[in-house]
Design brief:
By secondary structure, the chain is of the alpha/beta class. 17% of the residues lie in helices and 26% in strands. It folds into two domains: 258 residues, QueA-like (3-Layer(aba) Sandwich), CATH 3.40.1780; 79 residues, Thrombin, subunit H, CATH 2.40.10.
Length: 363
């Protein structure tokens, strides 16, 4: 899949929520000690802990991620997001002043132009030129767009992806302050299609061996693609969460994935989504009966309590930031009060939180 495969028009999702429901940002707050924010990935991916929640009886079990096969049954379908994170963080200097500037690639607009996040933005007015790697890559600011993002046109010799691989850094979230020694640890083992500015972190727990065990047990694996943008992680800044607007992200579901998911539904199996990105992809593409068709496009779907899931039956996910859209999505699948109780328990049991942290499986 090309980085610049920006085909169909934006798929804007209108959700069916109760007008009586008023959800405040503070409804999704919880206290998290800073020491529980995971700074480094574990030596082995599947050694992370796994909190298993049974929605029918409220039972919570404490396992390791390698135990997940105990909760998957023959005929079920695991849906994974095979997007690949690009080394989207570039550190350069402004050509006229030598001032240091950080550029984060967000969305490719054409072969040479990207929408970017620039720090400090005041040094990146239209016409400014930024040099990376002693001129191996040069960017010129062309315009200022939504939320102060910059459109930058790049010039370089050779292939952009190769230049980026040489000069770019993995765009780790700001709460991770440790240096990542192996950049592949911020990729899933099944990452394939380049285009994300952040990893679909629920998938980081899987190893190739674990995936083989899952398939041998008779569980099908469907691969979808959603290129994760920073919009997924932007803080919600409005008190009434229904006023929040999600940024759009590009997704693809091919014929094979649609066939696997639909046959699972038809045969009474469970569709188990790995991560909020896979969930958003499926719920965007599903019709009212949960049927998926092969499609691609842009989605800005925002899932929060009150939303009725059409396709996803179960969810594997990480522990998310307080007041985040990711926590709101999880609270839509299970109820908000019990999700927050589970988070309180995770704090008490000293689970590791966020991107390199532990996982939760909601049955």
């Amino acid at each position: 899949m090309s980085l610049c495969n920006m085909g169909p028009a934006l798929c804007h999702i209108v959700l069916d929520y109760s007008e009586e429901m008023v959800l405040k940002l503070s409804d999704f707050y919880y206290e998290l000690p800073e020491e529980l924010i995971a700074q480094d990935p574990l030596l082995k991916r599947s050694d992370s802990r796994l909190m298993v929640i049974n929605r029918e009886n409220g039972k919570i079990e404490h396992k390791h991620f390698r135990d997940i096969t105990q909760y998957l049954n023959q005929g079920d379908c695991l849906v994974i997001n095979d997007t690949k994170v690009i080394p989207a963080r570039l550190i350069g200097v402004k050509e006229d002043t030598g001032a240091s500037i950080e550029v984060l690639l967000l969305k490719r607009k054409d072969d040479k132009t990207w929408e970017t996040l620039v720090k400090p933005g005041k040094k990146a007015r239209p016409g400014a030129r930024i040099s990376f790697g002693d001129g191996k890559l040069v960017g010129e600011v062309k315009d200022i767009v939504e939320e102060g993002n910059r459109l930058i046109e790049f010039t370089y010799d050779g292939i952009f992806e190769e230049v980026l691989d040489e000069l770019g850094q993995m765009p780790l979230p700001p709460y991770i302050t440790h240096k990542l020694e192996d950049k592949n640890r911020y990729q899933t083992v099944y990452a394939k299609h380049e285009g994300s500015a952040a990893a679909p972190t629920a998938g980081l727990h899987f190893t190739n061996e674990l995936l083989e065990q899952i398939e041998k047990k008779g569980i099908k694996i469907a691969r979808v693609t959603l290129h994760v943008g920073l919009g997924t992680f932007r803080p919600v800044k409005v008190d009434n969460i229904t006023d929040h607007h999600m940024h759009s992200e590009f997704y693809v579901i091919d014929d094979l994935a649609a066939e696997i998911i639909n046959s699972t539904k038809e045969n009474g199996g469970k569709v188990i989504s790995v991560g909020t990105t896979s969930t958003r992809t499926l719920e965007t593409a599903a019709d009212e009966n949960g049927h998926i068709k092969a499609t691609s496009g842009w989605t800005d779907i925002f899932i929060y309590p009150g939303y009725k899931f059409k396709c996803v039956d179960r969810l594997i996910t990480n522990f998310h930031l307080p007041e985040s859209t990711l926590l709101m999505l999880v609270s839509a699948l299970y109820n908000r009060e019990d999700v927050l109780k589970a988070y309180e328990l995770a704090v008490k049991e000293k689970y590791r939180f966020f991107s390199f942290g532990d996982a939760m499986f909601i049955l």
